[in-house]
Amino acid sequence: MGSGQSTPAPAAALPPTAANMGADLKTPSKDPAKPKPCCVCTDEKAERDKCMLFSDSDDAQKECSDLVLKYKDCMAGYGFKI
């Protein structure tokens, strides 16, 4: 090897390719992706809101309690605590 020839660099010394440069930056998630609360139970929420806003009763909370419970149950099914 004393003739001035150089040996190729080991593979570990080569720069990373563009395809795998971001691979180390991503951290694996332990929990599966959870939907946003605004994106689930939209029908139940709309029924609850309509009842509460347009109720002719003196006690809209009591009148709409079944729809509120239905909405809470739906949200709990997605892992949200209300």
UniProtKB/TrEMBL annotation:
Record has Iron as a keyword: no
Location(s), subcellular: Mitochondrion intermembrane space
Record-level Gene Ontology MF annotations: copper chaperone activity; copper ion binding
Family stated for the protein in its record: Belongs to the COX17 family.
Keyword annotations: Chaperone, Copper, Disulfide bond, Metal-binding, Mitochondrion
Composition bias, Low complexity: 7-19
Pfam families recorded: COX17 (PF05051)
One GO term (biological process): mitochondrial respiratory chain complex IV assembly
InterPro entries recorded: Cys_alpha_HP_mot_SF (IPR009069), Cyt_c_oxidase_Cu-chaperone (IPR007745)
Binding site for Cu cation: C38, C39
Annotated Gene3D superfamilies: CytochromE C oxidase copper chaperone
Protein name as catalogued: Uncharacterized protein
Signal peptide: none
Gene Ontology, cellular component aspect: mitochondrial intermembrane space
UniProt superkingdom: Eukaryota
Cross-referenced SUPFAM superfamilies: Cysteine alpha-hairpin motif
Annotated region described as Disordered, given as residue ranges: 1-36
